[in-house]
Amino acid sequence: MGRSASVFQALLVFLITIIETQWSSVSGMYCADMASTVYRPHSVTITEFGAVGDGVTLNTKAFQNAIFYLNSFADKGGAQLFVPAGRWLTGGFSLISHLTLSLDKDAVIIGSPHSSDWPVIDPLPSYGRGRELPGGRHQSLIFGSHLTDVIITGANGTIDGQGAIWWDWFHNNTLNYTRPHLVELMYSTNVVISNLTFKNSPFWNIHPVYCKPSYCRARYNPSTFEFAKHRRH
């Protein structure tokens, strides 16, 4: 890597650090207060829907079924989906309004290494095409559109996209669609993301689009930048 590229990368990381620090200082107190005052009268655990936290069993259906069930409580004060300790492999799934997704400190939601487990959705209207390729794009691991009152939180649980394979596909020009993010929320309001670690994203960690600014800063593992750096050549 040349000197100019190294300087650019250092500047990029510096700017991201400043942005994240400002984001935290401006919205962190508001988001923390909001999260602590939201009471969900209904709560279920992902294991109640057949999920297995062994890091091998695919739990996409369990997440989808749990959220479908909890949707019946949206007008009754909302609900919480709790993810206990374990390694919970899943493809992409969508959230609903008036929902708290809460992870135990030893819970890891793991993205499937198979692209077929990440649905393909329409490109963003402002792009008109996939950011990297014409046509659609893969849905993020955790997705939501036109939502309100959503909390994604935990006791510093982890969301791991297993992104290395996606970066390999990207640099080898073998992708059919634009890569997914870990979390993407569109046209949404009153969203809190806090007390989680995001790592190994196929693309961006958290990607809010056309949303009102009500987000908390979470922890980001630098591995996404490492993937980009080590696969530049």
UniProtKB/TrEMBL annotation:
Signal peptide positions on this chain: 1-28
What's a Pfam family this protein contains?
Glyco_hydro_28
State the source organism's domain of life.
Eukaryota
The membrane spanning regions, by residue number, are none
* GO biological process entries: carbohydrate metabolic process
GO function terms (MF aspect): polygalacturonase activity
Keywords of the record, alphabetical order, are:
Glycosidase, Hydrolase, Signal
InterPro entries attached here? GH28_Enzymes, Glyco_hydro_28, Pectin_lyas_fold, Pectin_lyase_fold/virulence
| Family membership | Belongs to the glycosyl hydrolase 28 family.
Mind telling me what this protein is named? Polygalacturonase
